Amino acid sequence: MSARLAKGGRLIDRSKAHRFTFNCKWMRGFEGDTLSAALLANDQMLVGRSFKYHRPRGIVASGPEEPNGLVNLGKGDRLEPNQRTTTTELFDGLTAESQNHWPSLENDIGVVNNYAARFLPAGFYYKTFLQPRAAWKHVFEPIVRHSAGLGKAPKDRDADRYEQAYAFCDVLVIGGGVAGLQAALVAGRSGARVMLLEQTGHWGGRAPVDGVEIDGQPADAWVKTTVQALEAMENVTLRKRCMGAGVYDHGYVLADEKVADHTPGDGRPKHRLWRIRAGRIIAATGAIERPLSFAGNDIPGVMLAAAVRDYVVNFAVSPGDRTVVVTNNDDAYRTAIALHQAGLSVPVILDARLTATGALPEQARKLGIRVETNRAIAMVQGGKRVKRVSICAQAGEGAVLEEIACEAVAMSGGWSPVVHLWSHCGGKLIWDEATACFRPDAARPPLNHDGSAMVIAAGAANGALPAADTLADAHRAGEAASKPAGEAPKATAAEEAPMEAVWLMPQGAPVKLRAKAWLDYQNDVKVSDVQLAAREGYESVEHTKRYTTLGMATDQGKLSNINGLAVLADALNEHIPQVGTTTFRPPYTPVTFGALAGEARGEIFQPLRRTPMHDWHDAHGAYWEPVGLWRRPYCYTQGGESHEKSVHREVLNVRNNVGLLDASTLGKIIVKGPDAGRFLDMLYTGVMSTLPIGKCRYGLMCNENGFLSDDGVVARIDEDTWLCHTTSGGADRIHAHMEDWLQCEWWDWQVWTANVTEQYAQVAVVGPNARKLLEKLGGMDVSKETLPFMQWADGMLGGFRARVYRISFSGELSYEIAIPASEGRAFWEACLAAGAEFGVMPYGTEALHVLRAEKGFIMIGDETDGTVIPQDLGLGWAISKKKADYLGKRGQERSFLADPDRWKLVGLETLDGSVIPDGAIAVAEGKNANGQRNTQGRVTSSYHSPTLGKGIAMGLVLRGPDRMGEVLDFPKIGGGSVKARIVDQVFYDKEGAKQNV
Amino acid sequence: MLILECPYCGVKAEETELSPGYEAHLKRYGPGASDDEFESYMFARKNPKGVHFERWRHVYGCGKWFLAARCTATLEVFGTYPAQTSAPPPDLIEAIKAKRPGWEGYK
In B, which residues are within 8 Å of A894 by CB distance? Predict the structure, then answer.
């Protein structure tokens, strides 16, 4: 049984007890506990089930490398899946539930997979789901979907808020152990702006637990003085509970500060995401202990040796009365000594090495602890917890020499520096033979903008594992990031004899044992799986990782990486550095989406652009449609009518009376200068330089590929000024397009552009009564004679400074009136008042679409999709034949664009008067190479026309204009088809009589 | 996230202030150009592992286009300069040659 010890615990406050629940069972812990410590204190050894075999899983580690202790934390609108028990600080009222089991943690049905394990080897899914194809869809996928996934996805809207902060510093130190503290101290004393981040709630890291002394005082005391010294420096910022998540280009770092994870609901933001730009980054991220690969190393109660030490020393938690220590190094002896000092029993230390004569083994022997060398664990026995271990010779093949009863096993396979941050931006690693680990190669660091080293690894993260080396190395790193700072403090700890790499225990373990020796606890990858992958030809470590799932999910190479690589290297008969590592990618530990989104959610997810008349629309039944960042009224509903009815009414009112459209979103770009005409001639397919002052001309813009990109009416304002209208969504893009060509290609042309889209409100007054309305407003002569079609005039209209364009996108008598934005709403209301007697009504974007489709006018984005040239749309008339050049001209000359057999624009009229589904495809005879029906066209716009009382559509059809009268077949989704005849795309008022009045 | 100094306004601009414009110093081929010339102008891009000349616009700053020489492998920035030129400044070429002796030039 694991339990709380009566005394000790350097991080807990026994005067403050917290109650919490695990799987609905009430438990008790103390302030300062992690959830792991509190669970173990309540003898909750079993905390989860593994992903594939559903084997019982217990806590292995005490830090972020924990693979098993993953819980659903909180509930309802504060539920978070996959929270590590080892990094979750206990608070009163905490609720946690274990994951990946059904119906319960203790009795799990999925565990049958465990007994079928030999039939579920590496790559099982890939192999099984290849054939037959039907089995995948009907048998495997439903099962996998049901069983896959760790944790529950929250269903409610997150109750918490998250914030983001920006910071800039000269030196960013990540890791608040003694190495990080010393590096920060050196950099801080140099006067540099320093930030120091520590992922846990405590400074000092492992040193206090490991009994290190610094400058003659206990590590705890040195940590306290150093933190005080740092806090006193104005140029130093310290953040606890702040995890350095990722290092990106040019000194950019993301860090996730868990502000209120341990005090939920106290009003503070839950997390604060720091976006830091650092001159130099010191990675003082420490090291992670490696498990040993022996049979049964996944049974609850088998833990990392340093984690056992942490639980005993920091939290006064005993893993069990009797703990067997198994190791290949001296450091694990510290665990045996700590257990002994806590009054617990260590029946034996099994050391895989042939000799163990260092200071720590000697100390253990002096305390009366039995030390056995050349020994290994043949097998751990137990189900949901450890019962005993069978011991064998490490040199042998697993013949059992002795069995020892115990409740826990503390294992240590050596230490791996945390090289994640070093590697994120391309820092390279070298293999250190002596300590059997990859460490940063100082000669090949990730680089800054100026080619200098961006990251400096310090302390254990740099492979300087013994405490004395750690501190000296961190001192040097601090100096490298700032300036020389004299003597480093001296750390002293027991001398350690060399470790010896052990990748399999015993070294000759037969397959029966190898198939129970876990490399990755979470994803159920065993020594035998990696060996199988190698036999099946997976030589690349990246492929093996994906094939076996080694180090995937939350592990990300923290715990399983090196052991897996070593097994793979051995199977391939290669050296470990030749096999290499998988790629380390951010984040170091998961960052919740809430922190990444920050405040950008709900209404302020993105900016909302409002026209000057926005509030009027909102107050008058507007049903909003997003258009880029704008909101435009789709239609205005009256009474209880449907949107369809509204559109119907609005269309007919425009055709019969007069309608008002808020056209303010229309792009308006002023192009001015001596070379403006020449520039516009290059930009548009038509000629704009010859446009007389006071007149308007429709223009098309193509990209260099020849494809139609935007359209709109251009007005010549004066000798060297043009005003270009763009589509609503295209204003910014087209303005940028103009600037690109002006700045980068024709930089010697004298042209200036200004995007004045938001400076003007624009109102379209459309319908047979439009002129009457404007005359009622008064002030300008808008007669046919003075202001004919495709001309514009400036003047005072109803007391407003107005520019009136006589242009039409509906086929009706139509004026578009631009007024200063500040007067837009007043003008809109003046139009409504003046038009009341003429039956005026506002209309929305859907009516606009129907009106233009009835007239066969194209819409960018409907009739175009980036692969359509103007010639496809019958717009050849808008392309100048005389101009030597324009953007897109050379592109359009390519053979496949000049081919007459292209899909071209036509009208489509259903035989039964129904509306063809938008996007429907016209089928042709025969089938293509994939057995699909051949196609010969598609619908680009399709509406019910209230004016004509039937469905109308436009589409692109193979040689369409040459095939008038032919009937095409458009299959519908869900069966059946619609037949439609190819017709002219102008359905209404072909002669244009209505607009020329 | 890159930092590039805008040669117009002198701001050390973060990548979020900039918009990329791909390869710099392309020669435009219009009407009259052969298919091969047009193809290479439209589609053939260098994509080197190493020194690359590229276009950037300080879009959320002064709005100006500028050019940058950058190592695509290490992200080292050798320099930035205004876009109104058809060739990189000679001193920049020299500086890159000094740092990358094997470099074959920008063309």
Answer: 35, 38
Q: Which residues of A touch B65 (CB under 8 A)?
A: 739-740, 743-744
Could you tell me the two tokens for B83? 């876009």
Cα separation, A480 vs A244, in Å, equals 20
List the domain boundaries for chain B. Answer: 3-99
Residue of A448, A681, A744 best to disrupt the B interface, most CBs of B under 10 A: A744
CATH class, domain A517-579, is: mainly alpha
Which residues of chain B are within 8 Å of residue A251 when distances are taken between CB atoms?
A: 3
**Does the structural domain A627-665+761-852 have CATH classification 3.40.50.970?**
no
What is the model's pLDDT at position A55?
Answer: 87
pLDDT at A988: 96
CB atoms near residue B7 (< 10 Å): 16
Contact across the interface for A894 and B35, Cβ inside 8 Å: yes
Q: What is each CA distance from A725 to A496, A665, A728, A860, in whole angstroms?
A: 78, 10, 9, 13
A447 closest CB neighbour out of B19, B64, B75: B75
- Ranges of beta strands (E only) in A515-657 are 518-520, 525-526, 622-627, 630-636
pLDDT of residue A396: 95
Same CATH topology for A627-665+761-852 and A898-997?
no
- Give per-residue pLDDT as tens, B29-63: 999 999 999 999 999 999 999 999 999 999 999 99
> Where in chain A are the domains?
3-112, 162-288+417-485, 291-413, 517-579, 627-665+761-852, 667-758, 898-997
CATH number of B3-99: 3.30.2270.10
Rounded mean pLDDT of A57-68?
A: 95
Distance of alpha carbon A660 from its chain centroid, rounded? 43
Range A162-288+417-485 has CATH code 3.40.50.1980: no
CATH 2.40.33.20 fits A291-413, yes or no: no
Distance of CA A482 to the CA centre of its chain: 34
- Asked if residue A148 has pLDDT above 60, the reply is no
Smallest Cβ–Cβ distance between A250 and the set B2, B38, B64 belongs to B2
Alpha carbon of residue A17 to chain centroid: 39
Lowest mean pLDDT among A598-602, A819-823, A837-841: A598-602
* pLDDT confidence bin for A131, thresholds 50/70/90: low
Residue showing tokens 């002198």 = B10
pLDDT at A51 over 90: no
Quote the pTM value. 0.91
**How far is B76 from chain A, CA to nearest CA, in Å?**
5
Does this complex have an ipTM over 0.90? yes
CA nearest to B19, candidates B80, B79, B65, B88: B65
Query: What burial class does residue A362 get, using C-beta atoms within 10 Å of its C-beta: 0-12 exposed, 13-18 middle, 19+ buried?
Result: middle
Please compute the mean of the pLDDT values over residues A480-502 and round it to a whole number.
Answer: 93
Numbered residues of chain B with Cβ closer than 8 Å to any chain A Cβ: 1-3, 14-15, 19, 21, 28-33, 35, 38, 42, 55, 57, 59, 63-65, 73-77, 83-84, 99
Mean pLDDT for A411-422 is: 97
- To 10 degrees, the CA torsion angle through A794, A796, A802, A805? -50
Residue with tokens 């140099």: A190
Token pair recorded at residue A955: 């589409």
CATH 3.30.70.1400, domain A667-758, yes or no: yes
Residue A113 has pLDDT above 80, yes or no: no
Using the beta-carbon criterion (under 8 Å), do A449 and B75 form an inter-chain contact?
yes
Closest-approach residue (CA) in chain A for B55: A744
Name the residue among B31, B33, B77 with its Cβ closest to that of A449.
B77
CA angle A912-A916-A920, nearest 5°? 140
Fold (topology level) of A3-112: Ubiquitin-like (UB roll) (3.10.20)
